[in-house]
Specification:
The chain is α/β, with parallel strands linked by helices and 474 residues long. It has 3 domains: 2-272, Spore Coat Polysaccharide Biosynthesis Protein SpsA, Chain A, CATH 3.90.550; 277-342, no CATH class; 362-466, Jelly Rolls (Sandwich).
Length: 474
């Protein structure tokens, strides 16, 4: 049967703050290799037979990140479904399944639903489990993967299965919420309790029929949203009003805990969901003192710690059992055992409206990125990096002026009624209210220092007139 991967990429990754942010969450980060977790999720499917173009379900604000990361690994036949808001896993999976049927791709096909932020080391074992799951799905079963537990972990939900096996799978007896430590230890002693992975295999029509029976309100809303979806460049925007009307609920609550048609395929493949900094420490390569070191770090009498620097040197003396994460605009210091509480810090930043919750100092855009180097009263300095062939929108600001200085490459600039070609060391001043644009028509990267001045410097002071990335209506 054909395999259509469905990659759920809507998470926010708050437990890996400050590296993971709302606008650049963990699935887009390279945490365990040179590729991002989203990219690794797709690359580890290489070697399976009959793989079709994937469906990626993501937040509308992440669409350009997803598209660029797929292009980087030569995935050009994808469907990118844009959620207008996050509604948990049940609506996301339902939208993917209904999209497959609407696009008439369901013939002899199964959907392989994966999270974009899981780590799986044993690819051979993973592929073997997938092939077993496909055979079960052929018989109209909904298959989930149960991770063979390696410890009494209280951070995962558990699945209790029957003792009898049929074709490599077990019937589900019950789904169990995250247990306490005593209960988790009892589960570990038995051989029919597995961690709930949140990964699935099924035929599209089977999932839709089951959801229509057990959670009709979800399918009623999502089917309308998919039918009324709009194409936007290379993306498919799910219709917002209907999608918003769907209950905000996980697939476990909406279906898995209700249906009698669920089977489990055990998966023992060195799996990790990278839920917290402690998880990254546990899988990291350690030095003789038990430290995992990333970036420019010098240690003295330091042990059992995870230390990551992204921009400057970190020096530690006489510390043990710490997690230290340094980014250009935020520093986290925690004991390893308390890193799961980082989500509380992220929630407080969100409540306070702090930019450190939303994005890092370097902010990615479809044309490249900018880095906010310095700011003060009525001024801000940014470094702009414009990709080959990319162009900023034709725009205007009501409250700020800008001065552009080219430091690398060649810039094609619209400044009012003038079109300029600026080389390295050349500059132009754009007064308040003047229409302007910046383009890189060369075959190498363009870097510009932008000095903003004015009474208000927020990103919402942008009026777009033309945009290659469809952002005018936003």
């Amino acid at each position: 049967m054909k395999i259509i991967p469905v990659i759920l990429s809507g998470g926010s990754g708050t437990r890996l703050w400050p590296l993971s942010r709302k606008q650049y969450p963990k699935q887009f980060l390279a945490l365990d290799s040179q590729k991002s977790m989203l990219q690794e999720t797709l690359l580890r499917l290489n070697g399976l037979s009959n793989i079709e173009g994937p469906i990626v379900v993501c937040n509308v604000n992440h669409r350009f990140l997803v598209a660029e990361q797929l292009n980087e690994i030569d995935v050009f036949d994808s469907t990118i479904l844009l959620e207008p808001v996050g509604r948990n896993t049940a609506p996301a999976i339902a939208a993917a399944a209904f999209n497959v049927i609407q696009q008439k791709r369901e013939g002899k096909a199964v959907l392989l639903v994966l999270s974009a932020d899981h780590l799986i080391k044993d690819i051979k074992a993973f592929h073997k489990a997938i092939n077993i799951a496909i055979e079960c799905a052929k018989h109209e079963k909904i298959v989930t993967f149960g991770i063979v537990p390696t410890e009494a972990n209280i951070g995962y939900g558990y699945i209790k299965t029957s003792k009898s096996e049929k074709n490599g799978a077990f019937k589900v007896e019950s789904f169990i919420e995250k247990p306490n430590q005593i209960t988790a230890k009892k589960f570990l002693e038995k051989d029919n309790y597995f961690w709930n992975s949140g990964m699935f295999v099924f035929q599209p029509h089977v999932l839709i029929n089951e959801l229509s029976f057990y959670s009709k309100d979800i399918m009623d809303a999502i089917s309308i949203s998919v039918i009324n979806a709009k194409k936007d460049l290379d993306f498919t925007r799910l219709e917002a009003k209907s999608f918003n009307a769907s209950p905000n609920i996980s697939i476990d609550y909406a279906l898995m805990e209700k249906s009698n048609n669920i089977v489990v395929v055990p998966l023992d493949a060195n799996w990790n969901d990278i839920g917290a900094w402690q998880s990254l420490y546990s899988i990291g390569s350690k030095d003789k003192n038990g430290n995992v070191i990333k970036g420019d770090v010098i240690t003295d009498q330091t042990s059992n710690s995870y230390i990551l620097s992204t921009s400057r040197i970190i020096a530690t003396i006489g510390v043990d059992n710490l997690v230290i994460i340094d980014t250009p605009d935020a520093l986290l210091i925690s004991t390893k055992q308390k890193t799961h509480l980082v989500k509380n810090i992220a929630s407080k930043l969100e409540e306070d409206g702090r930019s450190e919750y939303d994005h890092q100092r370097k902010v990615y855009r479809p044309w490249g990125w900018y880095d906010s180097i310095e700011s003060g009263k009525h001024f801000q300095v940014k470094r702009l990096h414009v990709k080959q062939g990319a162009k900023l929108s034709l725009q205007m600001h009501h409250k700020r002026a800008e001065h552009w200085v080219v430091v690398n490459g060649t810039a094609t600039v619209i400044n009012g009624d003038k079109t300029l070609t600026l080389e390295e060391g050349e500059s132009t001043f754009i007064p308040i209210g003047v229409t302007h644009s910046l383009e890189n028509q060369s075959n190498k990267s363009l870097e510009v220092i932008e000095v903003q001045s004015g009474l208000y410097l927020g990103e919402d002071d942008i009026v777009r007139f033309e945009d290659a990335y469809g952002r005018i209506k936003e």
